[in-house]
Amino acid sequence: xxxxxxxxxxxxxxxxxxxxxxxxxxxxxDLIDLDPDWRVYGAGITIxxxxxxxxxxxxxxxxxxxxxxxxxxxxxxxxxxTVLRVLDEPVIEEGLPATGGIMRPILHRIMQDRVRELDxxxxxxxxxxxxxxxxxxxxxxFSDGTSGHYDLVIGADSVFxxxxxxxxxxxxxxxxxxxxxxxISIRKPPEQDMGEFYFGSANxxxxxxxxxxxxxxxxxxxxxxxxxxxxxxxxxTTMKQxxxxxxxxxxxxxxxxxxxxxxxxxPLAASLQPGPWFNxxxxxxxxxxxxxxxxxxxxxxxxxxxxIVLAQELEQASSVEAGLKAYQDRRFDRCxxxxxxxxxxxxxxxxxxxxxxxxxxxEGALARxxxxx
Length: 373
Ligand SMILES: Cc1cc2nc3c(=O)[nH]c(=O)nc-3n(C[C@H](O)[C@H](O)[C@H](O)COP(=O)(O)OP(=O)(O)OC[C@H]3O[C@@H](n4cnc5c(N)ncnc54)[C@H](O)[C@@H]3O)c2cc1C
Hints:
Helix content: 25-40%
Strand order of the largest sheet: 6-5-14-15-16-13-17
Structural class: alpha/beta
Distance between the termini: 21 Å
Number of strands: 19
Number of helices: 11
Shape: globular
CATH topology of the domain at 5-46 and 104-174 and 270-369: FAD/NAD(P)-binding domain
Bound molecules: flavin-adenine dinucleotide
Oligomer: single chain
Largest sheet: 7 strands, mixed
CATH class of the domain at 5-46 and 104-174 and 270-369: Alpha Beta
């Protein structure tokens, strides 16, 4: 391995995957996160087959299987609840479930446990204030006044990345797509036995099982700026109104949701940042450089894949620059495909495009994602 030390900025999905992948190859990694409590919000997350494959590289699939939910089927319904078909989800690797879901706080804990097992030092409530590329390595000034020197700095600090702002002047903020995503985490509807997608209404919706008695429902609507600032009571009543047309388990959730359930509304934004994704020995990964919308449920999978590819390429490269270039080359087109397909699906939904065209875009993109990374 051509680097001995690394600083990972951001202890989310991509940052932890990166710290784990590098530490497992003998790199001395420090991890920092701005959040003093190192939390994650209470949503569920869909873990597609390719994402499960990436987590298998990190040795975590068994725990995801035990503490989340996995399945090989999903059901497509009309928005009123009429069942259209049951899909067999393709299994992309021997012994790997086809797809699944898990609550984000549980996934976060599973990854944190692995970080601790690898004895990776974690500092919380801290960010970077300055980064200076030196002849060899990067001088880092931290927000608590301390400093450090690392062979590599990895910016995995998400869509509003400070590392990107500090070291990548040719990049810019993610662009709003015009849609917003509503999510609710709630107990499992009694009839819910697999994930579901609801089509045919103005606002598409889906449900992912995340554990024995846990699901989350997502609903995509045209973005209304005022909905970004709703209080808890307004979030509850507005989401309930948006769910009015739905039958099936989505209707059950509307009728049984309570003010205690976790509810969130978030406008969607996406960006594939232009290359280079590295500046000297500072490199970006995850939403900091390839932020997507949830239409293919693949943002987390892309972050974990990027972390694995970065470690693999550094392990076999003859120089750090060659390793970072190889990382970018391997990731760019795959991330572009996910982002462009996701944004195109959202645009068609906003324009009320033919459901067959939307389904075709989703199926095509998911089939390409099943290819090895
Ligand atoms: C509505 C919605 C639904 C989604 N659903 C899915 C899904 O079902 N499946 C899927 O695969 N993906 C989904 N995604 C995408 C997925 O959540 C992200 O792609 C993934 O979390 C990206 O990982 P990351 O490590 O880049 O960022 P994050 O996981 O967001 O982690 C970033 C970390 O950096 C820390 N941080 C932030 N700023 C700083 C700073 N300045 N200094 C230090 N630390 C900092 C944060 O505290 C956080 O811990 C969804 C996204 C959205 C918006």
